[in-house]
Amino acid sequence: MARIVILGAGVSGHTAALHLKRLLGSRHTITVVSPNSKWNWIPSNIWVGVGEMEKKHVIFPLAPVYQRKGIDFRQAKGVAIRPYGDADDPRPAVDIEYTLPEKAGQTERLRYDYLVNATGPKLRFEATPGLGPDGHTVSVCTADHAVEANVKLRAVIEKLKAGIPQTLVVGTGHGTCTCEGAAFEYVFNVDHELRQAGVRDLARVVYLTNEAALGDFGVDGMIFDQQGFQTTSELWTGSLFRERGVEAILGTHVFQIDEGVIHFESLDGEKHMLDFDFAMLIPPFGGQPLTAYDRDGADITADMFAPSGFMKVDADYSPKPYEEWKAEDWPSTYLAPGFDNIFAVGIAFAPPHQISKPRKTPNGTVIAPSPPRTGMPSGVMGKTAALSIAGRLKNGKDTPAHTASMAQMGAACVASAGTGLTKGSAAAMTMLPVVPDYVRYPTGRDARETQGELGLHGHWVKLMLHYLFIYKAKALPGWQLIPE
Amino acid sequence: MSETPAVVADLSRSPLPTRVTLRRRQNVVLQFVRFVRFDLRIMRMVAKGHR
Ligand SMILES: Cc1cc2nc3c(=O)[nH]c(=O)nc-3n(C[C@H](O)[C@H](O)[C@H](O)COP(=O)(O)OP(=O)(O)OC[C@H]3O[C@@H](n4cnc5c(N)ncnc54)[C@H](O)[C@@H]3O)c2cc1C
After folding, report:
1. Which CATH number is correct for A3-122+288-361+370-395, 3.30.565.10, 3.40.1170.60, 1.10.1040.10, 3.50.50.100?
2. Domain spans of chain A?
3. How much is the pTM?
4. FRET label pair with A332: which of A95, A145, A239, A346, CA 20 to 30 Å apart?
5. Cβ < 6 A, ligand 1 pocket
6. Using one digit for the tens of pLDDT, what is the confidence trace for A398-457?
7. DSSP string spanning A293-320?
8. By the 8 A CB rule, do A353 and A259 touch?
9. Which of B16, B34, B48 sits opposite A242 (nearest CB)?
């Protein structure tokens, strides 16, 4: 009987756990280690952050689901990986520290046959002084953050109702952020809320982003085929900004936030200030602080993890300029180099480089959107790791690993621009593949599948995905029929 | 270096949707058709991307 340990119960780790259980039944032990007792459908945090959805509708407790499925759940965080075992035992192990209130702080060493690192992002608010809920801005990256964002948004709306003009800024809190899509969604939801409250005319709404052009989204923008013409995501998003009267400030690196003032550098190297009354800025992401040791206890963290803290996998990490980036640089099996039993999936794996063109200001400041790893690819990676592990356990260790490269798979990005069954709207985009492949496609992507549409139907899609993915995550009957 | 007020992107050349386009975006029947088409595209993409 083998033991598979999965670190993380988010989109990728939870998907891996459910598929492993489906594929392996009770013949092997599946252990999920995650510090949070609840599962969160993060995309809907946007609606919590504008008060259109309650927190309880975007989270649910994990323990009952795992109990029902026969999955061993440890409410704990992984702290160290020992892929060669330790002095007492050559079997690989992972050290965990409990966060379950009754066992808080207790540690345990779990032996594993297979390990899946699906620990997602560390929200690095500390990268910019004054950024985040402990500083002067809000966030929607967790359900609790989103609740706080809504409280502050309501206070601003009250001031607007009292006739006091307010500046609301939404965007990225550092030059190397990813997840611009979430900021984009939030800014249009805020705009929608202000209109609903009848106070839009007194509000200045600003989108402050590290993207060099609108519609970049950290994927180097997209080219759509619309009514026989090639159009860019830049033109398409620009249209929405103009229509809604949302100002855009592009190519920025926020380096400090004081009470009511954002300080940032722009691509031309100039430094600027922007006054604000309310700001939701996404933090840069890093890997969770995991360490790794060899059998003698020597630290091998730098061998297994990139400086960003993300785990190295089967990608081509050799440094090369933007012009030489290739689809093949991207990983496909998510196996850690040198190990045939350690996978890193979702946001936890180290990408080989950005997807958008990285830029530097004349002062040497890097302004480079990091590559997004959205829900759909993250789920697919989790499933791929599960298929590889199940294949090896059933057919032998040499069974080839399954593959799913971001340079082959697509993603749907449905950016809500306002809620309401008849009044809602969303920018619904699909792209195939996520990482452009200029060898296969002249525009980098499949023109038939790469499209952007705006309208009420996008809101319905987003709502449908909300219910479908929560249903799937609860592992209710037929969950496996819902694609990742 | 002194800090100056922020410079806002010029969007005056971005195309504005016409009234008809705005109405179409909220038209329930048209949007239902688009909803079905979008879902089919996602399914097709899932099938292509998983190959
Ligand atoms: C505001 C916002 C909106 C978004 N909207 C969309 C959207 O509309 N569409 C879309 O496709 N994607 C969206 N995304 C991205 C999507 O949320 C991510 O792609 C997805 O959550 C990544 O999955 P993951 O499993 O890698 O990480 P996560 O889902 O973040 O899961 C990580 C898990 O690891 C756990 N963990 C952390 N540290 C440890 C540790 N030391 N040991 C063990 N476990 C640990 C965490 O508790 C968590 O359970 C959005 C993201 C944000 C922030």
Report:
1. 3.50.50.100
2. 3-122+288-361+370-395
3. 0.96
4. A95
5. A 7-13, 33-36, 42-43, 45-46, 77-78, 118-121, 140-141, 179, 182, 288, 346-348, 373-376, 378, 413-414
6. 999 999 999 999 988 888 888 889 988 898 999 999 999 999 999 999 988 899 989 999
7. B-TT--B-HHHHB-TTSPBP-SS-----
8. no
9. B16
